[in-house]
C-alpha cells in the first residue's frame, strides 16, 4: 500500500468520524460546552497553562452535583489585584499488558503558574514544571484584556519570550501522535514572538521563533513560522494550522485541519495533519500522515464516557500504518480533580507499542 493510499485512509476515517455521529460536542471540550474561546478561561489566549478567574470558576462546574458545593467561589487564584497563582499536577499510571510487560507511575508534569500585572494592559507570565525541574513558558504579553481578574477576555495580544507554538488541537495528552510526533507538545517551547487577534468568530495567531526545540538559541539565520486560525460558532468550529522551519539540520513543513462539533450530550473532535521533513545533511526526505478523532458523552454532570482514535503513517517509526483506539471513563469527583481510567488498544501492524491500561490523577486550580 503506498503513502497516498494510506493518507487517503486517514482522511476518509476522519470524514467518517466527523459525520457519523448525529449529536456531539468537542475538545478542548470545556470551551465548546461553554460556547467560548480559550482566552475566556486561560491567561494564554491560545490555551493551556494558567486559568483566569473566570476559568477557575467555570472548571469548578464540572464536578459531580453532590460535591460541586465544596467550591465556594472565594479563591480563584488571585493573591491581590496584581498577582495570581495557579497549578496543575498530573500523576499517570501506565501498564503495558503484553510482552515486554511494564507497570510505571510517572508525573508528566507538576506545574506552578505565576502571573503579574504590574501595569494596565501588560502581563508577565511564567510556567514552571516543579516535578521535572524545568521551566516551560515565560513571556511578557501586551494585550487589551482586563488586568486583575481577566474576566474580560483578551482580543488582541503580542507575546515575547519562550512560548508554546499555536498549532492544532491543544490536547492535554502529549503522547497523542498529533502532539508528540509532530513536535507540538507542552514541553516543546521555542523562543520568539506571537501576535494574535480574535475578531468576531475568528481566532488568529502567528508566531515567529528560532525553530530550535526546547527554547534554545538559533542555529542559523532563519526563523520558524507557525500559523493558527479557527472559525467558531455556537455548535461548530473548524480551523487550520501551518508550520515551516528551515533549520541547520532539516527543513520541516507541517499543515493540518481540525474541527469540533457540540450538540446535546455528545462530543466530537478531529484533526488530520501532513508533515514533510527533509534532512539537509544527506538530502533525504520523509512524509508523515497523522490523524486523531475523539468522541465524548456526558453520562451525568462530572462523569464522561470517552473514546479516541489515533493514527500515524511514518516508515521511520513502524511498518505500515499504525493506529490505536482508546476508551474509558473520565470523572470529576470534586471540584478541580479529574480521574481517568482508559484502555488503549493497538491495531494493525505498527510497531509503536502494545495494549495499555492508563490511569490518570489530575489536580488543578
Kindly, what is the distance between the CA atoms of the first and last residues, rounded to a whole number of angstroms? 48 Å
Q: How would you classify the helix and strand content by structural class? A: mainly beta
> Helicity, in percent?
under 10%
Please, what is the average pLDDT? 82
Multimeric status of the protein: single chain
Helix and strand run = HHHEEEEEEHEEEEEEEEEEE
In order across it, which strands form the biggest sheet? Answer: 2-3-4-5-6-7-8-9-10-11-12-13-14-15-16-17
Q: Based on DSSP secondary structure assignment, what is the total number of beta strands?
A: 17
Q: Roughly what fraction of the amino acids lie in strands? A: over 45%
Radius of gyration: 20 Å
Uncertain runs: 1-27
| Helical stretch tally | 4
The biggest beta sheet reads: 16 strands, antiparallel, barrel
Shape, per Cα inertia axes: globular
Description:
This protein is mainly beta and 365 residues long. The protein is 9% helix and 51% strand. A 16-stranded antiparallel beta barrel has the order 2-3-4-5-6-7-8-9-10-11-12-13-14-15-16-17. 37% of the residues are buried. Residues 1-27 have low confidence and may be disordered.
Quick structural gist:
The protein is built from four helices and 17 strands. With 365 residues, it is mainly beta.
